[in-house]
Each structure stands twice: as C-alpha cells, then as structure tokens.
C-alpha cells in the first residue's frame, strides 16, 4: 500500500515534531491519525454511531465521509488511524475551503484550560461575530497554472468584511497572487449558485439541522470543493459539481434530544454570506 501526504490539505493537523500527519493512498482512502486524550475515541465513536444510525436520512449521508474503520499504519510508528473516504480523490485541480462552524468551538465537558484557549481564538476571529471562521483554503489559479494558498495566520486575522472578501476570492477567476486586485467572483453563480451548487447543498443541511437532535457537532468544519477546470469548461456531470462535506468530529457529543443551535446558527449565518455574494457578485468588500 503506497501512502503519501495529502496534496491539498488546507486545515487540521499536519505531521510535526515526530507526530504523524494524515496520509492518502491510491485507492481513494484518507488516513487520519487518532488524536490524543479522548478526541480520537470520540471521533471513532461518532463514525461508528453515524454509519449505523438508521435515523440519519440517506440524502444526508452523502455530506459525510464514508467510514472504513481504524487501522495501524506502518511507517507512522504503527500509529492507529481512522480510515475514511478521500474527499478529493476524484479532483485533479481542486479549489478547497475549510470553514469551522458555530459561535463557539469548545464543548461543555471540556476543561477550563481548553475552554479559555478556544475562547481566545473564537473572540479573536470571526467565530463569535459571524458564527464561523475560515480555517484554510486553496484555489487553483488557472491564469498562473498553480495553486494559491494564504498563510493560516493571515486567515486568523480576518474580520467579518475580510471573511466576505475571502469567500469572493474563492470563486474568482482573476489572479489571487495579486494582492491589490479585487476578486471578480466570476465562478460565484456556478459554484455557489446553480441547482447543484453550494447554496442548495447548505440549505439541505440546514433543513436537517433544524430538526436533528442526534448529535451536537462542536468544532466541526464544512469543506467546500470544486474543480476549476470543470467550471471553465461548463461541465455539469456529477463528478464536476461543487461539493459540501462535513469533517472533523473529535468533539461531537450526543444530542440528547436537543437541537444543535450552535452549529445551526453558524450555518444560517454562513448561508447568508453566500446569498449576499450571489445577489451582489460584482461588489467587493474591503478587509
């Protein structure tokens, strides 16, 4: 089995200081190291529960990675890893964005130290003010024939207008390496709009979250992916369509019959940002 580091990881843990990072194989699988303390156990517990939960509607399952169990991986010091569907396996030049949802990223059972750590990040980013924060993104710049990815520390400094500008950049055709250029939002209607676009998928998720009380998705992210080349060529087959996926479930807790208002509130806010761009594609907020 040939394993390598994922090419288009925009957020999350990476291999560092002797700790293994995620890996992918050539069979469409993604290997995610089990996180320390209780986080790894929580994530495995969620996947096992979710994959067998008959209360989850079939049309909602497509928004989650397929779970293939856990496996010890040679070459990573035998580290145990969660084996998942590689969400980018079918993309050749993907533009990817990771958006962490909710007005808070800590969970009720967390330690006071962890809560304070999260509060500092939540209040210093758009998590509290907008209900979400952009954790990372990468865009294929077809004019430069290369990928463009901003540093994470720049994203952490975004205010609300900066987040709106970044969501426009994500669907723009003009070169993003030119800091002074305003994003043209040329792909907004194809990626965010259209009958199979991001907005339609977000609204389908919203309908579920307005009623689901099975889980509370603390510190969970929405991953948005589209293929620039397909948009430029006007392809509309299933493989070319923009995709929304939910990822990162290390802090998911049982819903206990209560609606997940934290995630739902962030999702509603995010939907409004996307709608604003679709309604005014030529406007460009200043960060």
UniProtKB/TrEMBL annotation:
Source superkingdom: Eukaryota
GO-annotated molecular function: ATP binding; inositol-1,2,3,4,6-pentakisphosphate 5-kinase activity; inositol-1,3,4,6-tetrakisphosphate 5-kinase activity; inositol-1,4,5,6-tetrakisphosphate 3-kinase activity; inositol-1,4,5-trisphosphate 3-kinase activity; inositol-1,4,5-trisphosphate 6-kinase activity
EC number(s) reported in the record: 2.7.1.140, 2.7.1.151
CC terms in the record's Gene Ontology section: cytoplasm; nucleus; plasma membrane; pollen tube
Subcellular location: Nucleus
Catalytic activity from the UniProt record: 1D-myo-inositol 1,3,4,6-tetrakisphosphate + ATP = 1D-myo-inositol 1,3,4,5,6-pentakisphosphate + ADP + H(+); 1D-myo-inositol 1,4,5-trisphosphate + 2 ATP = 1D-myo-inositol 1,3,4,5,6-pentakisphosphate + 2 ADP + 2 H(+)
Predominant location category: nucleus
Region described as Disordered: 1-23
Enzyme class: transferase
Family, similarity comment: Belongs to the inositol phosphokinase (IPK) family.
Function: Inositol phosphate kinase with a broad substrate specificity.
UniProt protein name: Inositol polyphosphate multikinase
Organism: Arabidopsis lyrata subsp. lyrata (Lyre-leaved rock-cress)
Lineage of producing organism: Eukaryota, Viridiplantae, Streptophyta, Embryophyta, Tracheophyta
């Amino acid at each position: 089995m040939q394993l390598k580091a994922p090419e288009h990881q925009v957020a999350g843990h990476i291999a560092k200081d002797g700790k293994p990072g995620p890996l992918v194989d050539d069979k469409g699988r993604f290997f995610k190291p089990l996180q320390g303390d209780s986080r790894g156990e929580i994530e495995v517990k969620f996947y096992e529960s979710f994959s067998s939960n008959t209360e989850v509607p079939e049309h909602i399952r497509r928004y989650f990675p397929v779970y293939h169990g856990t496996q010890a991986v040679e070459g990573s010091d035998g580290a145990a890893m969660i084996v998942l569907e590689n969400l980018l396996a079918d993309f050749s030049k993907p533009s990817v964005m990771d958006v962490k949802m909710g007005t808070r990223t800590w969970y009720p059972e967390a330690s006071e130290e962890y809560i304070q750590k999260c509060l500092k990040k939540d209040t210093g980013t758009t998590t509290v003010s907008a209900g979400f924060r952009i954790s990372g993104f990468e865009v294929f710049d077809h004019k430069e024939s290369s990928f463009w990815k901003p540093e994470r520390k720049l994203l952490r400094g975004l205010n609300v207008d900066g987040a709106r500008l970044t969501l426009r950049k994500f669907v723009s055709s003009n070169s993003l390496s030119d800091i002074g250029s305003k994003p043209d939002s040329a792909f907004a209607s194809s990626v965010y709009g259209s009958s199979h676009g991001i907005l339609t998928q977000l609204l389908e998720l919203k309908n579920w979250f307005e009623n689901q009380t099975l889980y509370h998705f603390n510190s969970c992210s929405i991953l948005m992916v589209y293929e620039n080349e397909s948009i430029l060529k006007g392809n509309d087959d299933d493989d070319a369509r923009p995709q929304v996926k939910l990822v990162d479930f290390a802090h998911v807790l049982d819903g206990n019959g209560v609606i997940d208002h934290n995630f739902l509130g962030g999702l509603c806010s995010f939907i409004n940002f996307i709608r604003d761009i679709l309604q005014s594609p030529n406007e460009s907020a200043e960060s």
